[in-house]
Amino acid sequence: MRTTSGGRWWRWAVGLAVVGLALGAWGLLARPFAVADEGLGEPKAKGENRLEIHPRIGDFATGKLGRILISAKHGGGYHTVKKTTTENKEAQTKDAKVTITVYVWDGAGDPAVGKTVYFRVKYPDPDDPSPYESNSTEGDNRDARTPPLLPAGDLSAAQAVTALATIDGRAVAAAEVELTITDRHSGDNYIVKASLDSRFSANDTAETCLLTAWKRLYVETDKMFRFGRDCADGGGGVGASAKNVYLDDTTGFAADDWVQVISNESDDHNNGEVKQIESVDDSSTPKKLVLKDALARTYKTGAAGYAHVGKAIKTGDNVDQEATYYLADTSLLAACYEPAFIEFKEMSDGSSIMPYSFVTTAEATDQQNEADCRALSQRWFKNKENRTEDRFFPSGGGSLPQTGTLDTGKSNYLHLIGAHLYYHGGTFFGTSWYSTNAVYVWRKAIEDPYSACVVPNIVRDTVCHEIGHQFDIVGTIHMHCLNIAYTPPHDGEKCIMYSGGGLAGNLTNDVVRYCTDHILTGWPTDKYPSRRDIADGR
User: Fold this and answer.
1) C-alpha distances in angstroms, 475 versus 6, 7, 186, 401, 519?
2) Are 354 and 225 in contact (CB under 8 A)?
3) Domain boundaries, position 260
4) CA spacing 20 to 30 A to 55: which of 14, 74, 259, 416?
5) What contacts 475, CB < 8 A, 6 or more positions away?
């Protein structure tokens, strides 16, 4: 791929740094935490008070230990699952904030009401446990904001007094404060200490498990028909109870074929109806497909619904997904991005089918091609919203930068599309438009030159690579690099953002690691933000 005129979109022209990572082996959060008995204070002599602090290890969902989300703005909830707060709620219920609650017991094991509990955030903050951060230096959080929010995190109060509360069915004496974490730097981590002694004496403290800031991106994934045609405006749409589907061109359809009729009017319309063709009538104007069974709903043509009929390949009673649609495979996103403390939430809302479409006009300008693909995404991207963008190619051409309001994606929401083909002076595995949150994976460009056994690897890696371009922010250009992926392991694999000199890496190993510049330090060093430092408000 390459950038053009201001770098708001990219293409992967020649290949991928197709490289893999076994999540179970990287051990991102496997380091033992400085926690006594999972959030309990040090054992006390008989007659002394005892502290229990939350959140602790058992308060998180399985596999999500210590994850505190910077934002869950589009749903999916948070990762604390046990009720631990005085409101009888989970520790995280708000973006970038977590409630720190301490229960105090007296020497007889009863709730100790009226005790002053002192809180502080461990400073310097704990060492970054990621596999690519090579030193053991504490105080390496990257949020450099000045007080009151320090890099180590900000507490709502330095002390609180215990009061009686019923939490998760237990009567406890609880004191609590709220920790505010970074608003953008995934991987920044925190430990909160609590004590009945303002000096935080070693034998009178309890501390949380390691709390780590995570980003979440949302994905609406659409699949394009491998073949289809728009319904004809002249046919008056496709009416409910109708058996006739009008087309300007019926080439490619035959009697007994299965077809799927869709439009973008609603989720039900977008999933459409699968019917079998009785006959093809080319004598009418427009031409028409005559179905064996009537449709249950109306599908509007033109801008009212963009009604489309695609060819469906059935295996038994089911539509064969791979044979009917161009699919995008997200199965390596966790391996690629969780080392950067970034998780993805694939949303069923809006994820559906798109009409068969592609760009093949070699004479078209870059701007026109982008405008065509952008318009297609906007028509079928359910989670779009009007938002001002300062750099995009206008419809019909023009130079960057252009400023205006587009139907673009919600912040932190991507439109991932498995699609047919894009052509402009060559074919490309994938294309990513920052200004509209659109990420295309051009399946035919991958399938035509490569064997079937390699195609799935290239598709998976293209998804990781193109989504990497979506981490750009206004005024910067996250392009390609020639760097080696972070180590360990020392295997010589290329960064997933590599492009140049043909296919990179071993296409069968699914290695999808970044280089340390892209994932941690910035590229080149601090000239552009890294994936961990990029603004979460995307």
Assistant:
1) 9, 9, 21, 10, 19
2) yes
3) 232-306
4) 74
5) none
For 261, the 3-state DSSP assignment is: strand
Residues 155 and 46 in one domain: yes
pTM of the full predicted structure? 0.85
Q: Is residue 531 part of a domain?
A: no
Per-residue pLDDT of 178-221, as tens digits, reads: 999 998 899 999 999 999 999 998 667 899 999 999 999 999 99
Would the pLDDT of 3 be above 60? no
Residues 422 and 471 in one domain: yes
User: Pairing relation of β-strands 97-107 and 47-54?
Assistant: antiparallel
Q: Is the omega angle on the peptide bond into residue 488 within 30 degrees of 0, that is, cis?
A: yes
Q: Which two structure tokens, joined as six digits, stand for 251?
A: 């080439």
Which pLDDT score is estimated for 21?
Answer: 32
Are the CB atoms for 119 and 194 separated by under 8 Å?
A: yes
Helix or strand (DSSP H, E) at 355: none
Contact 61, 68 (CB under 8 A): no
Q: Is the pLDDT of residue 166 over 50?
A: yes
- Is residue 380 situated within a structural domain? yes
Question: Is 243 domain-assigned?
Answer: yes
- Residue 152 gets the label, from left (phi > 0), alpha (psi -120 to 50) or beta, of alpha
Q: 3-state DSSP call for residue 202? A: helix
Q: What is the spatial distance between Cα 70 and Cα 343, in angstroms, rounded to a whole number?
A: 11
Rounded Cα gap, residues 54 and 167, in angstroms: 12
Structural contact between residues 307 and 244, judged by C-beta atoms closer than 8 angstroms: no
Q: Which tokens hold the place of 241?
A: 């109870």
pLDDT of 1 higher than 50: no
**HEC string for 9-69:** EEECCCCCECECCCHHHHCCCCCCCCCCCCCECCCCCCEEEEEEEECCHHHECCCCCCEEE
Classify residue 149: in a domain, yes or no. Answer: yes
Boundary-marking domain end, from 194, 209, 224: 209
What's the angle, vertex CA 86, arms to CA 201 and CA 72, rounded to 5? 100
The single residue listed with the structure tokens 């995404």 is 377
Distance CA 153, CA 137 (A): 18
Last residue of a domain, one of 272, 306, 340: 306
SS3 100: strand
- CA–CA distance, 526 with 538 (Å, rounded to integer): 19
The dihedral built from the CA positions of residue 227, 232, 233 and 235, taken in this order, carries a sign that is negative
On whether both 155 and 118 belong to a single domain, the answer is yes
List pLDDT tens digits, range 347-363: 988 899 999 987 655 54
Distance (Å, whole) CA 246 – CA 451? 37
3-state helix, strand, coil split of the chain in percent (to 5) is 15, 30, 55
Element (H, E) at 322: helix 321-324
